[in-house]
Amino acid sequence: MAQLLAQRQGYQEETVGEMQRLKELQTSIRSLERELKERRTAVGGSHGQQQKSAALDRKIKTWQGRLEQANKKYSQQLAENSSLRETIDHLKAERKVRTAASRTAISLKYPHCDPRGGRFCQKWPNR
Hints:
By secondary structure, the chain is an all-alpha fold. Among the domains are: 1-33; 63-117. 84% of the residues lie in helices and 0% in strands.
């Protein structure tokens, strides 16, 4: 019986030691979990990194789409400007021809006026 009591006492002491070791391990685990959580928060975690990467990819695609649209509009505007420039050049040439014809007609009708237009002599008929 003394032997069983001694054995019981040994087990109780061993249990107390193991309980204390368990508390230390739990404290250590909590500390490491806290540190892991802080590091994941700082880094964003593996899932956080994937989200950041996916968000960055979406932004890149969005900006590429906007750039393509802007380039398309720019090309269309260049084509329209070229067409308008041709029309303007044609109209300028036409105006030059009409002005020359008008000056010729005036100089034939009124030979006493300046052919360059603008300066008229005293013989200009009054209206």
